[in-house]
Amino acid sequence: MNRPKPATVRRPSAVPKPSAHPPPGDFIALGSKGQANDSKAAVTLLKPAPAGLPSERKREGSTSLSSASSLTGLTKRPKLCSTPPLSALGRLAEAAVAEKRAISPSIKEPSVIPIEVVPTVLVDEIEAAEAEGNDDRIEGVLCGAAKQLKMNRAKPDPTLYLSLMYLAKIKPNIFATEGVIEALCSLLRRDASINFKAKGNSLVSVLACNLLMAAYEEDENWPEIFVKVYIEDSLGERIWVDSPHCKTFVDNIQTAFSTKMPPKSMLLHGEVGRSGGDLSAGSSPHPAMAEEEDSQSELLIAEEKMSPEQEGQLMPRYEDLAESVEEYVLDMLRDQLNRRQPMDNVSRNLLRLLTATCGYKEIRLMAVQRLEMWLQNPKLTRPAQDLLMSVCMNCNTHGSEDMEVISNLIKIRLKPKVLLNHYMLCVRDLLNAHRDNLGTMVKFVIFNELSNARNPNNMQILYTVLQHSSELAPKFLAMVFQDLLTNKDDYLRASRALLREIIKQTKHEINFQAFCLGLMQERKEAQYTDMEFKERFVMHITDLLAVSMMLGITAQVKEAGIAWDKGEKKNLEVLRSFQNQIAAIQRDAVWWLHTVVPSISKLAPKDYVHCLHKVLFTEQPETYYKWDNWPPESDRNFFLRLCSEVPILEDTLMRILVIGLSRSPLGPADAMELADHLVKRAAAVQADDVEVLRVERIQLIDAVLNLCTYHHPENIQLPPGYQPPNLAISTLYWKAWPLLLVVAAFNPENIGLAAWEEYPTLKMLMEMVMTNNYSYPPCTLTDEETRTEMINRELQISQREKQEILAFEGHLAAASTKQTITESSSLLLSQLTSLDPQGPPRRPPPHVLEQVKSLNQSLRLGHLLCRSRHPDFLLNIIQRQASSQSMPWLADLVQSSEGSLDVLPVQCLCEFLLHDAADESASGEEEEEGESKEQRAKKRQRQQKQRQLLGRLQDLLLGPRADEQTTCEVLDYFLRRLSSSQVASRVLAMKGLSLVLSEGGLRDREEKEHPMEEDSGDSELLQGYQWLLRDLPRLPLFDSVRATTSIALQQAIHMETDPQTISAYLVYLSQHAPIEDQGQHNDLSLDVARLIVERSTIMSHLFSKLSYSAESEAVLVALLSIFSCYVKRMRQSKEGEEVYSWSESQDQVFLRWTSGETATMHILVVHAMVILLTMGPPQGEGDFCALLDIWFPEKKPLPTAFLVDTSEEALLLPDWLKLRMIRSEVPRLVDAALQDLEPQQLLLFVQSFGIPVSSMSKLLQYLDQAVSHDPQTLEQNIMDKNYMAHLVEVQHERGATGGQTFHSLLTTSLPTRRDSADTPKPKTSPETPQGQSRIRALTQIRVLGPEDDLAGMFLQVLLLHLENRFVCSYSFLYPCICNPTAAVPFPDPTPTF
């Protein structure tokens, strides 16, 4: 901030006189002897004292000199006294009436009489005068000190300058008076009386600069006299201007010029940084040595830098005097430059001053006109280079002067490489100085290149410009070419040559895309809107676009293209970058033709289509080189092919379709043809490292199909209410689907997915190329009924389509020619088809199928679709065809995927493995004698592929990179087939699992490290199922598939018919089924229970005494283990715990034991456990005895059961189950079954067959007890006493005991003749279907009694004379023989021998 302005101003009494500018180095002596130059005057701004200094008194407010007589606006600091003296007031009045004087670098003699004191008492004198308030004495003493310094400039007194330094630190304001400023400024000027050749000492000048800096550090408005002494020293010896110790003072003075100075690192002259001035220019004498001078200067600077406050700040100091300072500087420099002197005599200091004052545009213009001569002068080279840098850095207005400066800079011709490099560096700074300099620079360079006075450095300048602004410079270059093409004269040939030369000389460093986009920008200037040859302009711009694209072929691109043609992959990055560049330029060119060109001129349709084809490189080759035969004939075809075999961008394709849909010269048919050509051309360039046909927008499908739409003539009026059908032009319609097929293959995640889900015809074509089968209906439809339905539907659609087209054409003819349309006279019938793209798939014409087949062979569309995992089209087809017997296309697919099995889904690999195994099993071990060599080679190749495939699947499961997802996918694919309804499918799944899971090396190694002792016995028993019992649990990620495997096997045991396979499944489930979760445990128990109860045939075979083996023993142990674990868990669960949901509770029973334990189970689980107990104990009866104790505790009542949903008591052991218990050989089960039996139940059981002798003895004993207890009731339930008597006799013959009392009852009451009408109906067998879900009381089924003779004959033939082992097999036939119409319950088929 500015300090308060002083209230008093001192001015000398001498009348100022105008004078001319004295030469540099003019000396003005200080003192009281009248040696001052009275013709010169100066008004000095005085700086007030800063507030806060305790040693200074309070000053009065300031007044500024606003009078016209004050030229410099300088004011003076007031004296240090409370009341201004009269002399000061007199000088103030004198200043008010002073005349305006001209700006002069000279300094008038101080008006203050210097008072010389001894240096040792200088500080005391100042403090004493301050204490007295004597400002005049302070000023006089300081002027006297300045005089002493001037008189002893060579070797100043150390005490003196140190005292002044001290005073400047503590009282800087005392130096800001007019007289002191004049005295100090005189120290900054050269002493003309001193010998020029003597060595100078800059200590006094440095001291003066720093004293002035201290005095004016905080003031924003500095005296103009500082600029004058700066100019004088800059043109003279530069004693203090170049001194680093005066840098702060000098920098603040230079703010008057607003010059942006180059950084020190860019300054080339060697004198910068020197403490003294230019030695060659001469300086004041000094008798001391140089070392002493340096030490004194260092001491001075060290003293000054002790306080941070002395480091000064940089700010604008001459804002109020800007105009006068500029006028003075311009006058001085014009005078210097206009002097008549040889160019060799120009001082380097003048160039340095010009460098510092380049902030003025007039200075820049004056300097640039002479720069070329100065740069070529060896004596001035370095300062001239700095001046050039300063001119370029300060050219920041882009006014007429600066544009002239740029024009002159362009014309500078430099040959030495050092100068040329510096010139290019300056060009970069010129471009940074103002944003509009770039366009002006490019324009001037191009026009200079086309002129007669061509600068040989033009191309290097352009190269620098293009490197500096890679995005903007090409745009401005393109604008210049646009300007050239607007001339009346045809500049195309010259423009082509110039463009080629620019690209060649700039080493292809141009951004071609930005340049081409610049060529296509719409211009609004008058010369463009009023252009006479607009059509020619568009055609020429199109030609330049094509040339620019071909010019992008560098030597590296050419080399990479040749290598690519040879099948080598070298420098692919360069080639891909070029291809993407061409694709981007073509996108912009199509945009230009669509949006900009119609606003420039309405081209003829032929010319418009020509331009479109030309930028897309689909035009005839001669149109690209007819102007100047470039490219040369040797490279012509190669260049055109490189520019055409490029990707196509989505915007390009979409815009071509939009152009075809709009009313433009490119019709729908041409647009479809062009889009089809571009898509197929781009698809042919496909590679793994480039996206040639990337499309994101699903709307592309609708745009393509809309091009096919048929529109009837607008001038034809259709009947009111008639809605014309949606029709498409057949040729375009069947051209659209292959086009979309290619796009879908390259974009499966969006276009492909939409086609698969919404466009059945396109989906059908996708399936065709994936299966490599081009028949209709497609081979993916395996169901014959579905295939027939599709054919019939196609016939119906074709017939309806024909009728609609005939009706539509009839309406058109009625409105125009009045002709009657028939099928034979119809013109549209062969040209149109129904447009229903989302309807049923249509039969493609044969030529379309051939085209699709050819496309698939050349572009590998099926491979691209099969490779897609998200979505997974291939997996979808495989899953739909899972039940098919043959998928030959899958084998071809895997065979064709050389080395790329990883791109196919694991389900595909698994399916191929299964079908390969099926083919091998179907062919069997055929003799190879009849095979040809080709067949053997194919077989070996197939076996090798199978080994490769198997290795891939094993790596997914067992390899180090096995992950959870792939492991689950592989196993799930095979495990799901284990529950197939087809035996062959189940066998193939097991074979596949055996192949995949059994890896020799890994198996052997793990057997050594981790022997599987716990299931070694089962593995030995079930040798064919090692993959399940041994290899599967060894998978690295077995835990991740444990649950899914158990679920699959639980489903498989209900479908499998091989007892040994079921045995392996049950053993696995008992060992590895996850039972941590209650729900999983419930499902396992119920599934196994259903197997035991409902599949009695399988169970009979497993546990038949004829076929009972160690495997049966292992299965029984496994089953007992499963249920033992389950029942223990259920008995531990709390009573209130929710085990089943309400919807499942209808088949559940709540069990309660006498010990107080409870459990809730499915009734089938209870029955299954009882049936298992009837099998008898295996070796090691641990789980068997535990179950037996739970369900049939010794000498304790059985558990009671209640229905969960109604709380009614349930019948836990129905009669069919009691019969199974009686037939068992477990005494505890027999005793439990015979407890509390009614007489009718005893009679029913005794008639059953397959009961062991011991159990029959107990039954007969119970019948004896019943006779003793209630003979009448028992006798009433006997339907045929003769039959029963014979039955008891037969049992006695078998060895049964007891029943004599019962037999006596039968024989004593047996009449001699029995009437069949009185015979009561016998009861049926108590067995009921074991799968019943609701348990209720036993329902008795009455059967009519047989004739006596028939019954006797039956017993004699079938019972008495047959072996006991066969009796059981025919027991259930008796009721049927007795009464063929009676309902006979199905017996338990389990035989007991």
Automatic annotation (TrEMBL):
Ranges where the Integrator complex subunit 1 INTS2-binding domain occurs: 969-1302
InterPro entries: INTS1, INTS1_INTS2-bd, INTS1_RPB2-bd
Region annotation Disordered: where it falls in the sequence: 1-35, 48-80, 920-944, 1307-1334
Pfam family, one: INTS1_INTS2-bd
Domain Integrator complex subunit 1 RPB2-binding residue range list: 323-478
Gene Ontology annotations for the cellular component aspect, listed alphabetically: integrator complex
One record GO biological process: U2 snRNA 3'-end processing
Comp. bias regions, Acidic residues: 922-931
Composition skew (Low complexity), residue ranges: 62-75
Basic and acidic residues: bias regions: 1312-1321
PANTHER family: INTEGRATOR COMPLEX SUBUNIT 1 (PTHR21224:SF1)
Protein name: Integrator complex subunit 1
Organism: Chelydra serpentina (Snapping turtle)
